[in-house]
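Whiteboard transcription, Tuesday session. T.W. wrote the C-alpha cells on the left side:
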C-alpha cells in the first residue's frame, strides 16, 4: 500500500530495477508484483496492497480535489490530541537556565559606555 501511494504521489521519478529495467515511479508496484511472480511467490499480497493503496490514494488525494468532493478520511481527534505538537505560547519566556549558554546576551549593558 505504501509503495503504491508513494509511486502515485511521485509520478515523474525515474526508477531502475536491478539495472535492467527503467520505468516511471507509478509502475513500481506492478514491477514488484511481476518480480514476485517471477520468483514463484503468491501475488495475492501484492494485489491486495495495490487495491488498498489505490482506494486510499483516491479517497485522500483525488476525490477531495474534485468539484463537490469532500474529505472522507479524517484523523480521529483522540489521535490528534495525543500526537500533535501543542501550539507554542507567543508570551513564553524561558528561564535563564533553559537558555542556551545561560547568558543574557544583549540585555541592557553596553561595552565602553
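and on the right, the sequence the group agreed on:
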Amino acid at each position: 500500500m505504501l509503495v503504491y501511494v508513494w509511486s502515485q504521489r511521485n509520478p515523474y521519478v525515474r526508477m531502475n530495477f536491478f539495472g535492467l529495467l527503467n520505468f516511471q515511479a507509478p509502475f513500481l508496484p506492478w514491477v514488484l508484483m511481476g518480480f514476485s511472480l517471477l520468483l514463484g511467490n503468491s501475488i495475492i499480497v501484492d494485489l491486495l496492497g495495490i487495491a488498498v493503496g489505490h482506494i486510499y490514494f483516491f479517497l485522500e488525494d483525488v476525490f477531495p480535489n474534485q468539484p463537490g468532493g469532500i474529505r472522507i478520511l479524517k484523523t480521529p481527534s483522540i489521535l490528534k490530541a495525543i500526537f500533535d505538537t501543542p501550539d507554542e505560547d507567543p508570551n513564553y519566556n524561558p528561564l535563564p537556565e533553559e537558555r542556551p549558554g545561560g547568558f543574557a546576551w544583549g540585555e541592557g549593558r553596553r561595552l565602553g559606555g
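Someone added at the bottom: The chain has one domain: 2-83.
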